[in-house]
Amino acid sequence: MDLDEDDFVFFGTPIEREEEITSRKKKAVAEASGQLRTLPVWKQEVTDEEGRRRFHGAFTGGFSAGYYNTVGSKEGWTPQKFVSSRKNRAEVKQQNILNFLDEDERADLEGQSLGTSMQFDTFGFTAAELARKQAEKEQQQRPSAIPGPVPDELVLPATESIGVKLLLKMGWRHGHSIKDSRPSSLYDARREARKAFLAFSSDDAKVQLTESESVQGNLESITEQPTNDDVQSYQSTPVYVRNPKQDLHGLGFDPYKHAPEFREKKRSRMSGKRETGSRKAYSTKDNLFGFKSGNVAPGFGIGALEEFDAEDEDVYAAGFDFVDTYVQEVEEPSRLMTDSKPKLLAKETGVLPGFRVASNSDYQLERFDPPVIPKDFVPCHKFPGPLETNYRLADPPPPEVPPPEDNNLKLLIEGVATLVARCGKLYEDLSKEKNQSNPLFNFLTGGNGYDYYTRKLWEERQKRTDQSKQQVDVKLSSSMRKMTAESRGKILGERPLERSIKDLSSSVASAEGIQLQFNLSDTFTEPASSSGLHEAVKPFKDDPAKQERFERFLKEKYQGGLRSTTSSGSSNMSEASRARERLDFEAAAEAIQKGQWGKESKHSSATGGMQFTSGGVEQAKVTEAEDLITKKMFPKREEYQWRPAPVLCKRFDLIDPYMGKPAPPPRMRSKIDTLIFTSDSAKETKVEETIIANRDFSMLQSDVQGISQDVAIKENEVEVEVENVERPVDLYKAIFSDDSDDEGETTSLKKVENPEKKIEAATTTLNRLIAGDFLESLGKELGLEVPPDLPQSTNMAKTPASQKEAANSNVGDSNILPVKNDPSTVFSETLNHEVPHNRKIAMEGRPEKNEVIHGKLAESVGIYMETGSTENDLDKVDLEKRVHEDSKAKTPSSRYKNWNSNSSSEDGRSRKQSRQHRHRSGDLDSDSSSDHRDRYHSRSKGRKKESSREKSGSSRRHSKHHKHRSRDSPGRSRYDSDREHREAKREKRKKRD
Amino acid sequence: MSESEVPRKEANVLKGHEGAVLAARFNSDGNYCLSCGKDRTIRLWNPHRGIHIKTYKSHAREVRDVHVTPDNSKLCSCGGDRQIFYWDVSTGRVIRKFRGHDGEVNAVKFNEYSSVVVSAGYDQSLRAWDCRSHSTEPIQIIDSFSDSVMSVCLTKSEIIGGSVDGTVRTFDIRIGREISDDLGQPVNCISMSNDGNCILASCLDSTLRLLDRTSGELLQEYKGHTCKSYKLDCCLTNTDAHVTGGSEDGFIYFWDLVDASVVSSFRAHSSVVTSVSYHPKDSCMITASVDGTIRVWKT
User: Fold this and answer.
1) How far apart are CA A932 and CA A946, in angstroms?
2) Where are the WD repeats (chain B) (predicted)?
3) Contact B181 A635 (CB under 8 A)
4) Which residues of chain A does B147 touch, with a Cβ-Cβ cutoff of 8 Å?
5) Which site among A126, A523, A656, B188 is 20 to 30 Å from B106 CA-CA?
6) CB contact under 8 A, B229 and A967
7) Are A647 and B140 in contact (CB < 8 Å)?
8) pLDDT digits (tens, 9 = 90+) for A57-68
């Protein structure tokens, strides 16, 4: 962009670009902040690399925490959501410091926490804690069936702490309160008993044990009063009373939750079953209903052993207050519990207390009679078909037979056996019938391999019945046999599918078949659907071996047939070059195919073009033909995928059709591009006419006046000749190489894929064309015989680019208008000033020899390097050079472009042509000497600037005479000159170095 | 429609441009017109009264095309300096310059919402520029053309470009497809019919071609004028009844849309008629010429 500015003409004060303004603003701000350092400390602001403020006020966060301080959250800490505890208090989690600590911090903290060492761990709490932690750790490390932390209950400390040991030694036992149990023991015992009765009331040995113990204690200290807080102080490992689950309810489900009476009843009934009930202590019936009569415990013997206490007025105690029972228990504690059960067991069996059996029940079980079975109904359904499945199993297994030697036969037998087993005897019969004559199937009728077949069949059946049996078992449908597709088909009278037979054959030779298919596709290529083959076309004439390969390629492509093993080309070719050649071939073939339709017209146009050089009369014919073709061809619609940018869609207020999709592969470049730039060999396929043109130039050079009809004849000769066209290395070098002259030529060729470079190349060639145009007019001025002005049809067929340029330039520049007497000729003076100068130079330069010109050129280049402004000189020299060079590349070259009405492809061709001119001339130069060539390179670089400049000037001048000559736009040339200016600069730098 | 309904009467001559006028465009309601030309200026006119209102100068080279937003608040222009200028109409200042084209910019258009400028360049590309953001990079580059793109038209969901490579390419943003209609002749200028169903393409073989947009079918060809080397505008009349276009000999031609007969042709300018623009509602048109004048024609 900067370089572009050089060329702008600025008037007045430039309007400042918006972003410049904003950037300046930013800069000003930055500067201001830079001055902050001079501020007092309390006004300074610390920022990080990205300009954000580093420290904030104490109330706004202190310092910038968050990710910047790597705390893990943006805020620097995990903010807690406020949860109202009003409704769900249980869920309120207590926050503690651990919530806010990192893991490492937590570890530190834990390391510092105090704990009792093992030997002083009196009660084993620390040990338990440690054990639990250990378990948790292990839990985290390995996955377990139960996700989440292990419940505490499951992980119990394994160690027996010293305290426990001591206690045990002192007589403490598990399940006991550690504290002095005496005052509360009685109460505890009672409570325990109550609980036990309520909860289990079963003959649990443990409960009895505790009770008996407490009773013992009780006996020791009868007079002691129970304390109030004994329940709280009861601390010891709980005694787990295992109550086996005997019912069918869900775990934890208590059907008697709200009706404990029923539980009792149930229990009593159950125990009643077990027990004879001989020891019926008392009826609890009155007890049940009587206990509410007073708070006074109903029992007996309380008063005898202890005082009645308020504690004993257990409000919740139900009627089963067996406080006194353990008095009796002493004697036979084991019986007591069992005794307590039958207390409810009543004579009134099945009647709940408070209920009474109804005298007559309304409920009557309704019965339904079973459906009447028809008399002739057979409960077992049998299918008529010989579906074997079961009933042949009774047969004794045929003896095991070694399989036949013939592997094929073995496979066949096995296959048939499988099928018969699957489809039934019917299939066997069928295949027997079918293959009566087939010797392979002899085994069916008792021939070779029959034994093996029978054995195999039996095996298969065995297998199948096993399967079906399983199925039947699973489905539990004893009456119905499993309906398979086959059996259903049999019922419906369908024929077994043909597929089965095919299966058989393919099973025999499936692997081979695949292999064969693979081989087929490998060896035979499918003929591409192309009607016409053109053996006559020889795009690689210069290289017979290559041409041969190309023909083979064509044959393969269009005719199909056996793929020759050597198709990949001569063995000495590398893989890459082979691939490249194949690409070439593809391109060439396509070009040939594409050019097919225009073959005739090509021919005619070739002659037409020739005649045009001589007289330009018969051009009309060609254009007519072209018109016809055009009518037929155009408009031609094609569709491609095109991906609009998301922003574009947004701006157009449309939904991106490719939203979320990966980018499509880049579309193939057009044919012309590939033809031009893939490689020169591919180019040559399409370039026969160029060759012709080149021939023409040489003729023109030799005999300027003698452009006549015989040229056409010669032309035909030339067409047959094999022309070796040099690779346009010089051109590419001239354009692209700055210091890498020794670089591989082919690589530079390949690199041209860059579209920008393409454009450059195209413009350079266009310059050549324009030069040709110029020369034509020049020759006219000099009185040489020059083809007359183009008829209109050629205008039309001119290269679109130049046409467009013409449009632009002509529109743009009033001077070049056909209207000569235009009053407002602003720029005409300068042009007119230029014109005679150029003309003179041209006249001078015309007769000079090559060497002179080159010398002059080199000189002038040098001048240019020094001054950079002696443009007149340069113009001069360039003109001379041009005259020399382009006298060869005279007008016909530009005429030949018109052959194809397809303007785009023609464009490419014309570019090619001009390139060929170019390197032809380069060729000539290089012939003379090698250092000559070098000079040529450097010169061409320097020269291009002037050439383009000159060209624009000249074209402008000549537009006065020929409207059509003026087709090159100043814009284009300026564009070129930009680039060349740059190049020249680079050159200059190089020289200086 | 008879010949009488064709605007033949010269209502006004707008003089002011030095040198060729390259484009003249009505604004969206037809009350004003803009012209741009070789003298690097853009001029705003009231064509009905023949008054020159304002001149916009900033381009470094000739201005080739200009377009104004439907709300008349912004302009965009392009030209030989390879830049697209985004102007504020009232102040006459450049809001933004879009650079990126590698060659002259031939045509420029706003989209429906005036949020995007699409430009057609000599560098064989169409570029879309975002007016909303401050980015000066194109938001889309369409480079499937194989030659200079001469003209661009926008619909609500499509970008249509006509190129010297002979194609009229429709880029449908909504479905993400590119439809290329190869006319076989360099396309100079394209313009949409008012119903949006057809495209009129001016080709360099002195033919205007009417294409059906949905099918790509060639509906009609209009001949008689000369258009061989200049970029000449063409358009349909406001009623879509006629096709009109300039000629390199200074004539203006009117063809009947359906039977392609020349309804009227008359000499309008002393030189090439570069641009024609038809009033969106009335039977009124402006023509611009290389002779430096813009003429207003009414019935």
Assistant:
1) 20
2) 14-55, 56-97, 98-130, 266-299
3) yes
4) 800-801, 804, 904, 907
5) A656
6) yes
7) yes
8) 666 555 555 565
- Rounded Cα distance between B171 and B149, Å, is 14
Does the beta-carbon distance from A640 to B177 stay under 8 Å?
Answer: yes
In which domain, by residue range, is A952 found?
Answer: 742-788+795-992
Q: Note whether A313 and A411 are same-domain residues.
A: no
Examine the fold and report which residue of A343, A362, A385 is the final residue of a domain before the chain moves on: A343
A642, A645, A653 ranked by CB distance to B139: nearest: A645
Q: Is A233 on the interface with B (CB under 8 A)?
A: no
pLDDT of residue A676: 47
- A46-96 residue pLDDT tens: 666 666 666 666 665 555 555 655 555 665 566 667 767 777 666 556 667
Confidence of residue B4 (pLDDT cuts 50, 70, 90): low
Q: What is the CATH number of domain B3-298?
A: 2.130.10.10
In-domain check, residue A297: yes
Do A329 and A214 lie in one domain? The reply is yes
CB B70 within 8 A of CB B56: no
Nearest-10 Cα torsion for A97, A99, A101, A106: 80
Which of B18, B180, B188 is nearest residue A824 as measured by Cβ atoms? B18
Task: Give the confidence band of A159 by pLDDT, cuts at 50, 70, 90.
Answer: low
Please give the ipTM for the structure prediction.
0.87
Structural domains of chain A, count: 3
The pLDDT of residue A342 is above 60: no
What dihedral do alpha carbons A254, A258, A260, A265 form, nearest 10°? -80
- Choose from A594, A601, A648 for mutation: most chain B CBs within 10 A: A648
Q: H or E stretch including B63?
A: strand B63-68
Contact residues, chain A, for B164 at CB < 8 Å? 800-801, 803-804, 903
Contact A804 B186 (CB under 8 A): yes
Q: Is the pLDDT of residue A587 over 70?
A: yes
DSSP per residue over A219-243, as a string?
HH-SSPPPPTTHHHH--SPPPP---
Q: Is A623 exposed, middle or buried (0-12, 13-18, 19+ CB in 10 A)?
A: buried
Handedness of CA A296, A301, A302, A303 (dihedral sign): positive
Query: Does a structural domain hold residue A871?
Result: yes
Q: Is A625 on the interface with B (CB under 8 A)?
A: no
Do A864 and A763 share a structural domain?
Answer: yes
Determine the pLDDT at residue A273: 56
Chain B CB contacts of A967 below 8 Å: 229
Residues in A closer than 8 angstroms to B186, CB to CB, are 800, 803-804, 903
pLDDT digits (tens, 9 = 90+) for B247-294: 888 889 898 888 888 888 888 888 889 999 998 888 888 999 998 889
Does A831 share its domain with A929? yes
Under the banding of pLDDT at 50, 70 and 90, the label for residue A940 is: very low
Q: Which amino acid is at A829?
A: E
Phi, psi of B150 (to 5 degrees): -100, -30
The answer to the question of residue A823 being in a domain is: yes
Interface of A with B in 861-920 (CB under 8 A): 901-904, 907
- Calculate how close chain B gets to A870, using CA atoms only, in Å: 25
Q: What are phi and psi for residue B261, nearest 5 degrees? A: -85, 150
Q: Which of B19, B80, B182 minimises the CB distance to A971?
A: B80
Same domain as A946, residue A853 = yes
Same domain, A423 and A331: no
Please provide the DSSP assignment of A303-336 as one string: HHHS---GGG--SS--S---TTHHHHHTT-HHHH
Candidates A630, A641, A975; nearest CB to B177: A641
Nearest by CB: B62 against A812, A819, A972: A812
The residue out of A292, A316, A343 marking a domain boundary is: A343
